[in-house]
Every structure is written in structure tokens, then in C-alpha cells.
Amino acid sequence: MTTSIFDTDRENQWCPGCGNFAILAAMKQAFEDQNLKPRDILLVGGIGQAGKTPHYLACNMLHGLHGRALPMATGAKLANHHLNVVVSSGDGDCYGEGGNHFLAAIRRNLDITLLVHNNQVYGLTKGQSSPTTDLAMGTKLTPGGPTSTPLNPLALALTAGAGFVARGFSGAGEQLAGLIQEAMNFRGFAMIDIFQPCVSFNKINTHLWYKERVKDLGDTGHDPTDLPQALAVAMTEPGTQIPTGVLYRKPGVPFQDRFTVLKDKALTDYPFAGDQINDILSGI
Amino acid sequence: MGNDITILIGGKAGQGIQTIGAILAGICHDAGLFVFSTDDFQSRIRGGHSFHLLRVGSRPLSAPSIRPDILVAIDENTYDIHREKLMSSGIAILNKNGGNDGDSKGNIYRVPLQDLAAEAGGKIASNTVAAGVVAAVMGAGLDRVRAVIESRFEAKGEKVQTLNLAAVEKGYGQGRDICFQSPFSFDGEKSPDHVVMAGAKAAALGALAADCRFFPFYPMSPGTGIVTEVAANLGKLPVVMEQAEDEIAAVNMAIGASYAGIRSLVATSGGGFSLMVEGLGLSGITETPMVIINAQRPGPATGLATRTAQADLLFSIHASQDEFPRFVFAPGSVLDTFKTVKRAVMLSEKYQVPAIVLMDQYLTDSARTETNDFVVGDEHHSYIQDTEMYQGETYHRYKITEDGVSPRCLPCTPHALVRVAGNEHTPDGLPSEEPLNRVAMVDKRFVKLPAMTRELRLPSVFCNNSSFFLTGWGSSKGCIMEACLHLREEGIDAGWIIFEDLWPLDAQGLKDMLTGKRLIMVEGNATSQLGTLIRTLTGIEYLAAILKYDGRPIYPEYIVERVKDIQAN
Fold it and tell me: Residue A74: which of A39, A40, A100, A35 has the closest Cα?
């Protein structure tokens, strides 16, 4: 295994064979390919196996509550919009507990990169169904399968107005590293839903199951500026084929540009406005 | 004794009764008189019954009164609802166009507000007519009245200004014919040392003066008024507001921004605060400064949305699972609110702990004459340690220090890696389940407590040798003080003990202070939460409790009556 300036000495807690290892490696590669240093990046983690990803990367780290990574990232980004923010979340964290925040972050066009490690199951809490679990998959708590229809995160993101929507696969590391780099360079909300196997709790959507179905959109002539086309790709029945790559890419006005006060500089770069506040107080 | 009267203006939501009060308060303030106003309103935008209480005095006021000398009924219900409370020497002014037919007789005067407004140029100005009537009754000169109208409607253009000047004169002409026993002298001048302000604005200004720059919010009465006052200054200051998708998002945004170096404050009410509780714990374990203002209202759940309460004291001290140090404050006046919010922001930064400021609907909405001590102090001073920022990977966000406070750096500026986690963590911020580390980290957070306790003030005591003490906290301060002075005038040996700094308290100091004193608790809750806290900390039992949980303020008159009941038994 190659070494990286982003390595940490923390013992990795993921199960052997977990798809997260490949995602972690792709993140390091994407960071290195951009010549970034650990100090240049702020990783924000949710809770779950995916949320642990920042523990294994030597970067700035903000690791908060289950489902709340995006609001924390929103606050950090408003405080200092020069921060290069990457959020590591999972299907349960982002689409379940944090679903409201996911929609709100898209509508804000929050200028961050969101990586959703989607293994279609709750890994850290031992195999309960997630918002993306297939109806046919029985779990200990839902033996007859989940009682809710699986969510289509890509279609949801597209219809909510996300500017950069991509699908990755942990088994396609080079492609994933490229997608992460592209997402980080996109000005605005950029999300990659990354399919990955959960070797411990998802016996249906295995590495092999994904591998047989993934198809790189780059080989299909897909036009990522065409929203109806992107939606059609997003609606592809996952049981048959899983298109990977950039589904849609259209820059809009990023969140920080919607605040006049942030036009010139970051909020952190302003000195204390004592004189102006004194003016306000003397005018009361 | 100086002159002291109360005006009650009642009507339906949407009829603009607060506008009448604001005009009158402006006229009085310009003449150097003291005002104290409160609003009583329902959770609706139109209809129902609302009233505005305006008390005016020739000497400083610290509380409202519920016994009006002048009752202004804009609609047909107001007089019936409030007639029992009208002072025997008082007068009622009824809107003849508002369902109050009949002629003036006795102390009841009927004035056709809409008709007079129409004569002035538009029915829309009927509230201004009402203000003119009352201003004349109170004894204000027409020039003063005109000056307030001119300035109030200046921004709305000449047409609106002219209409309202004509309307106020119509009302004034009617008011001159009304006989009132307690007119004021309006010969005085506005004092530069005084300002009329409500608690919501004071909280907003306090936050800004302490260099808060980020205000994520989710609307909830009565907390919304605070961020609304922040919004009034957008464009003049480096400040960002963001309407969050819910209170959970708001509190997590505040923590994210604070981590990145911006002082952040969220204002909400009990229900929103309940949603923020997990975030409060995150602020606690990540040692990320943050201030939450909980403008209390009766609950639980939706409770009474537009009413007032003091029932979140113990909740605020204990909110969140497990244990961590925090500050809890409850300012007692509008000026105290400004100063307390500044202090809360500063102390939260200094000790890297969350701070909670308890206000309530009564305090946020009531405007009063205050000493103009609204100034920028030292609270904006930064505690971020620049020297640490160059330390690269050797920087540890949770370095164990003697006082528990670790040097704080900001992410990406320029070399130090700043890692924080809501998981228990080692000094470098990375998660750890190691038992000795866990103990070390809990101890590290709690070692701040003695210094935090020293920052806080014990309650204020009045008449230290009194036979009993009216004991309360926060917004009811002024009502308790006024009730106490009233009792003393009647020869009843009452004192007061009022808490504004609530957590962490110096238990021994408190015990020394309270031992041997007979306490009558005065609180806006049903179980005497402060009394419970005092007993828990000191073992001292209170003598009796005056508890009011009807959603309305604890008026001084109510306290006086209840003290007499207690004495009679």
C-alpha cells in the first residue's frame, strides 16, 4: 500500500473488505492530484461507518451529530467560504436522519462536495434497513424487507436543483478519484452517491452484484448538461444497470454569493465593526 | 410621589393597537417622562382580542400595571373585558365606530375614530386619531404631538404624513374636552441619558456589540423578535443571517460557524430549544462556543405560543444527555439583557462552553425607558490564539491544560490541523473509547467549573434584614422590586433576592447568603423551579411560593395581593 501525506496513525475500524477503504483511497488520490495539503481541507463527517472517514485522513475535521453534517458544513462555509469542504456521509446519515438538511443544502447550492457512501444498509448499527435498502432485502428488524420504498437520491437531487450530480462505485477507484476531484472543483453543491458493498450486512448488493451492473456514462455519449437526459439516467432501474459518472453538471449561483456581505471577503476576514456598532448604539 | 398612570388600549389583532401605544410612548419620552409598555396578544394575525399596556410615570418605572387609568376600546369587546380593572378615578374612551354606540356619560367617552379619520382624509388613520385623543387627555401640548407624528411618518412620504397630522389633530380636539384627573406636565425635555427599548432589541444589540456575526434561525415566537432586530442592521455590519430548515439545523450551523471562527447566536423559544438540545451537547463535548437565547413561553409542546413563562430554568441547566459545564443567565431588565447577552457571548468564548440566556415573551416584547448605557465594551476581545496556528500537526485542539481551556485555533489558518469530534476524543480531537482518556477528558471539561463559577454573581439582595424576601429570577425582577417597595410603603417588612446569573452557582456562597432568611418564591412556573434549585444547592427550604403560570406577566399588584394572602394565613 502506498503512503500518503493524508495518512493518519489511527487504527482503521472498518470491516476487512469494506467498500469504504476504496473510497478513502480515492479521496487521498483526489486530494493529492490537486496538490492539496492536509491543512487546506476541512472534512465534515456525519455519523455511521461513512462518517468515520475523516478519522483516517490527516485534515481539519468537524465530526458532529448523526444526520447533521450538512448544517455544520453550512455554518463553517458561511463563516469562511474559502474553506475547501468535503462532507463524508452515508445513505442513512444523509438520506434518513439528515434528509431535510440534504434538500436544504441543495436548495442553498452550498459550495461543498458531498460524498454519500451508499451501501444500502445501516452498517455501524448492525444491518437495519436504510432509505436505499431494496424492498426484497430482509433485515433482523424488518425480516420481510423494509416497509418503505427505496429512495432515488440522484433523481431527488436533480429535481431539487443540484448543480453537480454524480454516481460513483467503490470498485472503480480511478473513476471515483476523478469524480471527487471534479466535484471539489465545481463551484456549488456537488454530490456523488457512491455505491459500495457492505460485506457484513448486505448480502444482496455485493461487490460482484455492483460490478456486473455498473456502466461508465463516459462510454455512452451522455450529455451532462441535459437535465431530462440526466433524469432518465437517474431513473434507470438499479436492478438492471448502474450508470456511473457525472449525470448532470450545471453551475449556478453558489450559496456564499447570495450574501452581499460575503462578496468582498469571508466573514472571518472582517475586523470587529466597533465603530459601526457604536453608530447604531448612539442612534437608538 | 410623582404622577403615574396606565393606559390600556384594546382591540382585535390587526387593528394596530400597538401603534397607538408607540405614538403615545414617543410623546411621553420626548417630554422626559418614563414609559413601560407590554403587549398581550393571541396567536393569530386578525381578530380576537389583544391589548397594549402603557404605563407612564414622572419617575423611573420597573414594571407594568394591570390597573388602567385610561381604557381605550377600539372594538366592542374591550370595555367589557377590562372594565373591572379600570381605576375608580379612571376614564374609558370607546370607539363609537367600533360597536360602542350610545352617548358619552359619566367617565365613558365615545369618540367616532373612523369618522374623524375620514374627515382628516382617510379611515386608515383612525389609530392616529385615537393617539391624539389620549395625548390631549394626558395633557400633552399639540406641538409635541405633531413632532412625534411628523417623525414617525416621515419615511412614508408627505401624503401619509399630512394625513396623520390631520388625524392626530382631529383626535386631539376631541381629547381636550375630556376631563381626566391626573394629567402630566409635558414641559420637560427628552433626556439624552434615557432610551426606550424592548428586550428583543437589547438582546440583538448585545450580541452585535459582542461581535456575534452569525445568526442562523428558525422562526418561533417569541424568539423571532430578537433576530428581527438583528436583521434591521444587515448591510451596516459584517453579519450573516440564515433561515434554517429547522432548529436542529440552526444550532448545528451555529456550531459549524463557531468552529470556523465566527461568534454565533441562535434565538428561539422552548420548543425550538428542545430541538437544539442534542446540538447543545455537541457544543459541550466539542468545547465549541455558542449562545442560545431561549425566549420562554408556556409549554410543553406548542403550549401558549404568544404568552409568557419562566418554566425552563431547570430544563436549561440540565438539557442534554450526560454532563458538561455551561452558563445559564436570565436578565431582569432591558438594559440587563443587553449586558447579559454581551457577557454570555464573551464567557462562552473564554471558557469554550455553551451559554444559555433565558428571556421570555414579557421581556422580549416589553419596551421601557432605560438608562442609556448601551455601549460597546471589551466583550468582543478575541480568545483565538494566533501563535498556535502555525504548529502544523503537533497542534492539539483538546490539549490538557491546568484550567481546562485549550488553545483554540481555526481550521485552514494556516498550518494547524483543527480536529473536533462529538465522539469522546483524545487531545488531538480524534475519537477514542479508551477509559483513562475518557476520564481525563470529562475532568478536563469540568476543571473549568470553579473559574466559571467565580465569573457569576450571586443574587442581588435588598433590605438584608427584612422579615421575608420576595425571591425570583430573570424578567420578573422589576415586578418583584416594585411589589416589594409597595409592601414597604404599607409598613410590611419585605426585601427581595433576585437571581440573574443562574448557573454555575457558588453553592457555599449562596448558602451563606440565604441562611436564616425567609424566602417567598415569586416565579412564572407551577413548581417553584428556583426554589427547588436553592434547596438542591443549599438545603434551604423556602417559606412559601407565589407561582403564576397563566401565561401572563407577574404584575406587581398580583404579588402584593398574594403576599397579603400568605400573611393572613
Answer: A100
